[in-house]
Design goal:
2 domains, Rossmann fold, two-stranded parallel sheet, alpha/beta, 34% helix, 3-stranded parallel sheet
Length: 110
């Protein structure tokens, strides 16, 4: 993987992305985390990775959209659950509160 986007703010996802990046790859972090995350700095150094943070997405959207549209990035593994709007408070919030290390993205189906 040349470029990875961390949009989940979940430690295990960050670790997976660092492992997946190729030599000289870039990790673009746009998520906000609820607590500190461990990163394998040995991999970062040996693979000469670049980690960039951004509070705004600036120029990241077009590249991310292209990667998804081209099929180079499959978002399905990041979807923890799909819920209906009326389930948002009960299932959605509860899942995020009690499974915040494994819940990545919850889609509300409209």
């Amino acid at each position: 993987v040349d470029v990875a986007f961390e949009c989940a703010g979940v430690g295990p996802v960050t670790s997976t992305l660092v492992s997946a990046l190729r030599q000289g790859g870039v990790l673009q972090v746009v998520a906000l985390f609820s607590k500190p995350v461990e990163v394998d700095m040995v991999q970062v150094v040996l693979k000469e990775l670049v980690i960039k943070g951004s509070i705004g997405y600036r120029d990241a959207h077009p590249e991310a959209i292209e990667l998804v549209q081209s099929g180079k990035v499959d978002l399905a593994p990041f979807i923890t659950a799909k819920i209906k709007p009326e389930e948002y408070m009960e299932k959605g919030i509860e899942t995020l509160q009690h499974r915040n290390e494994t819940a990545v993205k919850i889609l509300v189906e409209m």
